[in-house]
Structures are given as C-alpha cells and as structure tokens.
Design goal:
There is one protein chain. This protein is α+β, with helices and mostly antiparallel strands. The chain has one domain. The protein is built from 17 helices and eleven strands. The strands form three sheets. Strands 7-8-9-11-10 form a five-stranded antiparallel beta sheet. Strands 3-4-6-5 form a four-stranded mixed beta sheet. The longest helix has 23 residues. The protein is globular, with a radius of gyration of 21 Å.
Length: 510
C-alpha cells in the first residue's frame, strides 16, 4: 500500500512534494491561497454547552478539540494559535507560492511556548474563566503603550504599536482596556524561548502519534514529537499569552510584514481584554468547542490583519508579501508531512471566512457575541450556517478498545475530511462527510505494538452513512493500514490499525 505522507523533499518538475499529490492534480490547485467566504451568518442566540461533565463511568477524559489537532497537545497551540508558518508548494506553473492560508499574510500566534500550561487540549492553552463571560466593561486606560524592544530594536517600534492599536480600535469600534506590552526579540532569543521546555510535551505527543499511525496519516517510523519540534522553529513569528498577557514578536526591525504581525497579535490582546481568551473550563470539554474557539480567535485576528494590510500602500504590501514568502522557503519545511502542515493552518483557512460571515450578517460587534457562544464542532466551523442554527452534535458512546486505551474523544468532521483528502483540502467538508452528526473514538496499541483506533459515528441518515462508507472504502484501499468499515442504518464503525509496529502511547490518557 502507498504511503501518502512520507517526506519527499522539495518539489521539482513532476516530482510530487511531501508524499505525492492526490486526484492527479498538484497541491497548488488543491489549496487555494484564500478560500471562498462561507455563507453569511449571524451568531446564534443559544448554543450547546461549551463543556461537559466527566463521563458517566467517572473516568477522566482527555479534552477533545478535534482529535487530529487536539492530539498534538500543548505543542500544537504554539503554532496552531501561532503565526508565520507558511506552507510553500508548487502551483501549475512551477512557481513557489504560499498556500493553505486564508489571506496574504502569514498566521500569527495567540499562545505561549508549550511550557506555559500543562499538556492537554487547546483549552489548557487558552486557560481561564467562564467561556460565556460578558465583554469587559472596564474603562479604557489612556496610559501610553509600553513596548520592550531589544537594545538594537527599531526606534520606531513604540510609534508603530501606537499606530496599530489605533487602527484596531477604529476597525473594531471599541477601545483597548489597557495598552499591551509588546516585547521584540531577535531570532536566537525568540527561538530559545519558544522551545525552552519542549521536551515536557513529549509524552503527550507519543500518545498522540498512535492516532496518526493507526490511520496511516504518518508512517510508523515518523516521530511526531520531532516533527512538531521542527515545525515550531520554521516560521512562528509571534505569540500572545492570554494567561500572562505576554506578547512577543520576532524581529528587531519594524518591517511591513512585522507590522501585519503586530496587527494580528494586538487583536488577540484586544479580544482577550474584552471577551476573555483565558478559559480553563474548556479543558474539560468533551466536544470540539476548544477547536471552535481557536478558529474563532484566529478568524477575529485575521479579519483585522487583513483590513490592516488592505490600507497599506502597494509597495508596503509587496514588501510584506516578499518577507512572508521568505518565512516559508526554509528547505526544512519539506521534511514535515503535508498533513501536519495543513492541520496546523486549518484554523486560519477556516477562521477568516467564519468571521467574515458573522460580520456580513451583523456588524463587527457581532464578533464579540460569537466569543460568548463559540462553535462546538468542526462541522459548525466548516459550514457556518450550521453554527447559526446551533446544530451541535449528538453524543455517541465511547467504543470498546482491544487493549489499554491511550486516548479518547471526538474525531469530528475535520478528522474525516483529513482522511478523505490526505490532509490537502481542509477548507471545506470533504464529500461524504456532510451528514456527520457525532462520533467517539479510542486508540490503543495491540500485542504487536501496532497503533489502532476505533471510531463509532452517527450520521444524519442511512444514505449519509453509506456515502461516508464509500469514501472510507476508497481511502482504505490506498492507506498503509488494515481497516474495517461497517455501516448499519445511520451508524458507521471504523477500526484501523497500522501495518507496522510503532512507538508511542506511553500513558493511558483516559
């Protein structure tokens, strides 16, 4: 069987990058630089609970923000809520371009280095209080912004922060409650802080890779921890920590590109001050609310960043794009499987259309309403009209594992879309997944140390279950796994094990 994600090196000529292109076409045509705006929507007045009580059997359960992304644990949050990770692929004219991003600018981060919070789902990174907390009513602090540039920093740094703060306040129609402190760091110092305590996350990533190996999304000999460590250093250009309020930007010169990074990061600070991004109760979520909240958070910042770039001069826009392109041209990017890169950029490709839809059918103030009731499933994120209807998901009992459970949770429409597209097209639901209603999964390692997963799903109808089964049957023929897929009425069961033994799964994680 073929391996769709084995690293292949930089694409040249007809050589398929990162494990080959699917459906006979190249990734440049599969991953539009900016996906179409989703259907217009206004935030719902009532949504399903943002978190759930422990499972009836009383077992602790790892947060499920969407299995394939949540499984990357706290490390993912550094990039997932982060910026500057550009995916450079080849288009049909063999010209490099940045893909898998919803706008011209590279994504930027909302999260601290992984050591800031305990390992787990994205909710742990976001931390904090009640997700439904009302917007802050604190009066704005008129104190001048405080920045912390390094000794050789651009002398215009503080003035630039002033300018970007004013732009955000005008765009969002409200004031910062306090002026953020922005710290500028040179490359070496920035990367040192970013990777300071990475090894503390290895156990979580060893558990996580069981899911990836079981589904053939990563070869059995690929170490997810090392893959993620490489990805961390490739293009993260800034982060904002909602818990400590620390904001760090990579760079000592205020270039046009750094200005767009500031617009993104300062918007995170704005949203945190007014709508509270620090929400530890999301740690206990058994649905995909953590992922929905992440997508909303990135979409909000991307919305302002996009507007900021639009008002720049043509020459500034060109300079920002050129610098952005350089971020993604590190040859090491080709050592990272495309499925990982696509999942890490998914909150950006999905976030901006979601927020644009919210604004188009209400106003910019509607973004704040959405923070009070974030999406609870990846389905609501990928199809905003379902978010408007508060469609949520049905609860599916946890399936039985044939060994000690490593992880459990919700796989989600995003997970099935990743399988059916090899991770290349995550902007919209894959055909066959539109009828997703809910699911539950468990992972384990069998007696031969093979990674295994079982996913029990509920679809909207028997026809939807058959359609998804047909798609998964095609996937199983090509994937390096041994899979069994059964459909019975509106229910579908998938069991998949890697064909080779793999490492990982050192803790129960239940």
């Amino acid at each position: 069987m073929s391996d769709p994600n084995a690293p292949q090196g930089p694409p040249t000529g007809e050589t398929p990058p990162l494990g080959g292109w699917t459906s006979g076409s190249r990734p440049g045509t599969e991953l539009p630089a900016r996906p179409p705006v989703a259907a217009s929507a206004v935030p719902p007045t009532e949504a399903p609970p943002a978190w759930a009580a422990p499972t009836p059997e009383g077992e602790p359960r790892r947060p499920s923000t969407g299995a394939l992304i949540a499984a990357l644990a706290a490390v993912v949050a550094v990039i997932l809520l982060a910026g500057g990770l550009a995916i450079v692929l080849a288009d049909s004219n063999e010209q490099a371009r940045i893909e898998a991003q919803p706008r011209r600018s590279a994504p930027t981060t909302t999260s601290p280095p992984p050591s800031t919070t305990p390992p787990g789902g994205l909710g742990e990174v976001l931390g904090g209080d009640d997700p439904g907390a009302s917007p802050s009513t604190t009066q704005p602090d008129t104190t001048a912004p405080t920045t912390s540039p390094p000794a050789n920093a651009d002398p215009n740094a503080e003035a630039t922060v002033d300018e970007v703060v004013a732009f955000i306040e005008k765009t969002r129609g409200a004031k910062f409650t306090t002026r953020p402190d922005v710290e500028f760091k040179a490359d070496a110092e920035f990367e040192k802080g970013l990777l300071a305590d990475f090894d503390e996350q290895r156990e979580d990533l060893e558990d996580a890779q069981v899911l990836y190996h079981a589904l053939g999304l990563l070869p059995a000999d690929v170490d997810l921890a090392e893959t993620m460590k490489s990805a961390l250093g490739l293009g993260v250009v800034g982060y904002y920590d909602p818990e400590t309020k620390e904001m760090v930007v990579r760079g000592t010169e205020i270039t046009p590109y750094v200005r767009t990074v500031l617009a993104h990061e300062l918007t995170h600070a704005f949203d945190d001050q007014r709508y509270n991004l620090d929400r530890p109760k999301l740690d206990d979520a058994t649905d995909e609310t953590g992922y929905g909240f992440t997508v909303l958070t990135e979409g909000s910042a991307s919305y302002v960043e996009d507007a900021y770039r639009e008002q720049m001069t043509s020459s500034e826009q060109q300079a920002a794009s050129a610098e952005e392109m350089q971020v993604g041209l590190d040859p090491a990017i080709f050592d990272i499987p495309i499925v990982i890169l696509s999942l890490l950029t998914a909150p950006y490709t999905q976030g901006l259309p979601l927020v644009e839809a919210i604004v188009d059918n209400g106003s910019v103030q509607s973004i704040g309403d959405a923070f009070a009731e974030p999406p609870t499933t990846s389905e609501e994120v990928m199809t905003p009209e379902k978010y408007l209807k508060s469609e949520g998901s049905v609860e599916v009992p946890k399936p039985k594992a044939d060994g000690e459970v490593v992880e459990s949770g919700v796989f989600g429409q995003l997970g099935f879309t990743t399988l059916l597209t090899n991770g290349l097209r995550l902007n919209d639901p894959a055909p066959g997944t539109e009828g997703w209603a809910g699911d539950s999964f468990v992972t384990w390692q069998d007696d031969s140390d093979r990674a295994c997963v079982r996913i029990d799903s509920k679809l909207d109808s028997a026809d939807d279950a058959k359609e998804l089964k047909d798609g998964l049957d095609d996937w199983a023929k090509k994937a390096p796994v041994e899979a069994q897929i059964q459909a019975n009425g509106d229910e579908l069961k998938l069991t998949s094990c890697a064909t080779d033994a793999s490492s990982g799964g050192t803790s129960s994680g239940l």
